[in-house]
Amino acid sequence: MLERLTSSLARELAHDGGDPSSHRPWPLPRAPWVMAQTWEDLVFLHWPMDPDDLRARLPRGLSLDTYRGDAWVSITPFVVTGLRPRGIPAVPGLSSFAETNVRTYVTRDGKPGVWFFSLDASSRLAVTAARALYHLPYHHAEFTIERTPERIRYACQRRDRHAPAGGLAVEYGPVGPRAPATPGTLSWWLTERYCLYASRRGHLYRAEIHHVPWPLQDAEAHVSHNTLLDGLAPGFGQTVGIRRPVVQFARRLSVIVWAPVRLGA
Fold first, then answer.
1. What distance in Å separates the CA atoms of residue 244 and residue 35, rounded to the nearest whole number?
2. Of all residues in the chain, what percent are helix, strand and coil, respectively (each to 5)?
3. Residue 226 domain-assigned?
4. Could you list the residue range(s) of the whole structural domain that residue 217 is in?
5. Is 186 exposed, middle or buried (0-12, 13-18, 19+ CB in 10 A)?
6. Model confidence over 74-118: pLDDT tens digits?
7. pLDDT in tens, 125-147
8. Alpha carbon 205 to chain centroid, angstroms
9. Looking at the domain assignment, is residue 21 inside a domain?
10. In a domain, 202, yes or no
11. For the domain that residue 118 is a member of, what is the CATH number?
């Protein structure tokens, strides 16, 4: 099922010597995967939300997923490396870029996944391709990233004149050991999701993804600027910024992605 992977990705997916898909909540798709990429220096910033604040912002056919009565919104800054279509090597200068996502958690047909309110990337090519092929609300943005052995300073500012203004400035770093989340915990619920949902012209799509269990670490973060959530409601980002987020860090995760599939009514 995972034939013809790059050697590094194959090693990660078979890291425990057993079934590389045994941790998934449903089987791998039968169709071939179409794209591989790696996510580096990723931080999750999670905030609990009133479900009523989010349900109306989802398309028809998707159900908001909740954990013990709370909905959640997350911002995820990271760097993409090694992006490539299946059968084609990564191209230097085109396969790496910075990205920041704003997401919540949804379910459809028993498959919990992710719904993106926005995705910002430094690559114009990635923005154009993802909008056309995966129907995702990508926007072009400018990024600055500074790394030290302990911390990462990360800032982005949206430059898409067709989208609401938005930006983020955060400093973050891990403070705990690396370990997969325990099934049933909030950390597991927030991260162990193996599909994304998108909508275009009233139609829903699902794209499957696969990776090893997230190699999470507890982390600390200081958010000095956040207006990426203001597209949900004016001033929303600053209001949420008053609350302390749940913070998780992952140094590196390789993933494979399938083509989106249109869902029935």
1. 35
2. 15, 45, 40
3. yes
4. 40-258
5. middle
6. 999 999 999 999 988 888 777 999 999 999 999 999 999 999 999
7. 999 999 999 999 999 999 999 99
8. 16
9. no
10. yes
11. 2.40.400.10
